[in-house]
Amino acid sequence: MSANSCSMHPIVQQKVSELRKASNTPRQVRELTDSIGRLLMYEATRDLPLVSTKEEQSPVGTYMAQEIQPRMALVPILRSGLSLLSAASDLLPDAEIYHLGLFREESTLQPVEYYNKLPRKCNVQGCIILDPMIATGGTAEAAIEIMQKWGALKIKYVAVCASKQGIDMLTKRFPDVQFYVATIDEGLDSHGVVIPGIGDCGDRLNNTA
């Protein structure tokens, strides 16, 4: 999988197909979202640079230990982005975790920021924004702008499902941001709902539909 394209991995596509089912329980939605997130995070972290640290001892000899060099931040978009946080933090256990609260106003489809606890000064070299759904792209655009204004130099975006309209807009608007998406759907209705999509992630994850 390359950045800015949807995954063609057969396991990812099978899991997306399972996630779409309206009959899924909240537990099934959470488990499938987490599983897809782990596969996407594997791809999103593929190019993180390593540095040699110090000589260590294995059971049969010595070796040079390695660790990921840049300080990274994981940024879940509340509330549905939390469903990808476990997968992301398992791969990057030492990453900073910062939450952004953004929701889409129903009548205008414009993003509204209601929570932001970023430190005054940027203390990381890169960040990975976590949000299962990219519809019109407005929320993702706002989140990326917030992180750029904060000072994050390298930004990646992990999403389960995106509309073609939304991802096309974002890749043109932010050519330096890398997007990792499980599936890109053609349809987007007048209410900004992706079709066939995966439904309202927040409601499905939290059983609040």
Task: Spell out the key features of this protein.
6 helices, Rossmann fold, about 210 residues, 13 strands, globular, single chain, two-stranded antiparallel sheet
Distance between the termini: 33 Å
Q: What is the third-level CATH name, the topology? A: Rossmann fold
Number of helices: 6
Helix share, percent: 25-40%
Summarize the main sheet. Answer: 9 strands, mixed
Describe the structure.
With 209 residues, this protein is an alpha/beta fold. The chain has one domain (5-51, 66-206): 3-Layer(aba) Sandwich (Rossmann fold). The protein contains six helices and 13 strands. It has helices at 10-20, 26-44, 85-91, 138-150, 164-173, 201-206, and strands at residues 5-6, 50-58, 61-68, 72-78, 96-97, 100-104, 111-116, 126-130, 133-134, 154-163, 178-185, 187-188, 194-195. The strands form three sheets. Strands 1, 4, 5, 6, 7, 8, 9, 10 and 11 form a nine-stranded mixed β-sheet that branches. A two-stranded antiparallel ribbon has the order 2-3. Helix 4 links the parallel strand 9 (133-134) and strand 10 (154-163). Helix 1 packs antiparallel against helix 2 and helix 2 packs parallel to helix 3 (85-91). The longest helix is centred in the N-terminal third of the chain and has 19 residues, at 26-44. The model has no long low-confidence stretch (mean pLDDT 92).
